[in-house]
Amino acid sequence: MSSKTLIPKDWQRLHLGDVARVTNGKTNSQDAVIDGNYPLFDRSVLIKKSDKFIFDGEAIILPGEGAEFIPRYFSGKFDLHQRAYAIFSDDEKVYSPYLYYFLFANRDIFAQTAVGSTVKSLRLPIIQKVSVNIPPLEEQKGIAEILQSVDAEIQKLDLLISETEKIKKGLVIKLFSDQQNNNKYKIGDISEVTSSKRVMVSDYVDSGIPFYRSTEIIKKSKNIPVTDPYYISQEQFDSFKNRFGAPEKGDILVTAVGTIGDVYLVQKETFYFKDGNTIWIRKIKDIVSPEYLRMILASSYYREKLNSVAGGSNQKALTIQKMESVEVPIPSIKEQQRLVEILSSIEEKTDMQVILRKLLTKLKIGLMSDLLSGKVRVK
To answer: Residue 84: which of 134, 28, 32, 139 has the closest Cα?
Structure first.
């Protein structure tokens, strides 16, 4: 949606500075903000704590620097970095929640008007000049109420997803703590931990055997279809398979660079994958079910563990040696099957919640487009 689209005759298009007071904060980076009772919104709208507040009321907080300028709504006492902005609505002209939704829907305008080459930043006169569609006040309230109701449902789902993940994490932690030392095995002791052989960009072809980078492995771990993969030739794949092996059903792939800990259990399929970015767990011993091992490694508990052992300063990387040393609890096969059933039911529940959240988010985007442009009226 663009603020430049045609609007209904009884609407106005005004500058943000005409309907709200826009001000930057006073706190700088050197001020002590470690302890305090009040949120401090810094220039990227990351929340810290301050021992003082300089604003009190309903405000739209806008970051002053960064790559994205996403507004957020806040009500209460807060402190503000000198390169962040607070927008206070003129209640006689604009309803604050409506203004928030309008600015959120049109947030691209901030990125487009930001200045600077290395670090983009906003300037007060630029923010004040942003055009805002202003319906009659009662219609503003009606629009905001509709969007707030959708947001409330999204927040409920976020809470459910979080609570479900906590339950899953708790089960894994209990399982790990309940097992005696002789029931914990290093991954290197129950499988072969390796990676693929290097494929060069010049080896890509227009069609053939799918070649997955970590981006595609992450999608597959989340059951998202891979629609446009890279390919290597059948001949090159056969050469790799005959000499070094290729992923087989029951193998496990774990992303190991940048985004660490997305876990994919290979199905009956044919593909190859990028070396270095993904760790390959194969030849898993009979004492452990591949599905059980996948679920354990995919838990938030183990994702945190894998990230903690990963090395690197600029970009974290999980090495084969580190993965080999990670311990996992291995109960009996019967107990593993029971746990897989429990964890599967939890995963299915989470998947449904995530799908519903995506649908609600899509609904919200559509509603913002229709309501904030006047295409659909609220009477």
So the answer is: 28
Between the alpha carbon of residue 286 and those of residues 136, 170, 180, 256, the distances in Å are 69, 26, 20, 25
DSSP 178: H
Cα gap 275→297, rounded to integer Å: 20
Separation of alpha carbons 28 and 34, rounded Å: 13
pLDDT value for 180 = 55
127 closest CA partner among 73, 46, 69:
69
Q: Give residue 301's identity as a one-letter amino acid code.
A: Y
Domains, in order of start, for the chain: 12-134 (3.90.220.20), 180-330 (3.90.220.20)
Q: Is 70 left (phi over 0), alpha (psi -120 to 50) or beta?
A: beta
Strands 38-41, 47-50: pairing kind: antiparallel
- SS3 call for 43: coil
- CA–CA separation, 221 vs 265, rounded Å? 8
Cβ atoms of residues 82 and 28 within 8 Å: yes
Q: Which of 42-46, 65-69, 156-160 has the highest mean pLDDT?
A: 156-160
Residues listed for the chain: 379
- Is 374 in contact with 206 (CB distance < 8 Å)? no
Q: Which pLDDT band holds residue 366 (cuts at 50, 70, 90)?
A: very high
Question: Buried b vs exposed e over 13-33: b needs ≥16 C-beta within 10 Å?
Answer: ebebbebbebbbbebeeeeeb
Predicted confidence at residue 181, as pLDDT, reads: 54
**Cα diameter, the chain:** 76
Helices (H), 94-233: 96-105, 108-113, 124-128, 137-178, 187-190, 214-221
Residue range 268-288, pLDDT digits in tens: 999 999 988 899 999 999 999
- Give the containing element (helix H, strand E) for 18: helix 16-19
1 has a pLDDT exceeding 70: no
Cβ distance 70 to 63 under 8 Å?
yes
With beta carbons less than 8 A apart as the criterion, state whether 223 and 351 touch: yes
Count other C-beta atoms under 10 Å from residue 163's C-beta.
11
Q: What tens digit of pLDDT does each residue of 258-272 get?
A: 889 999 999 999 999
Token pair belonging to 161: 């997803």
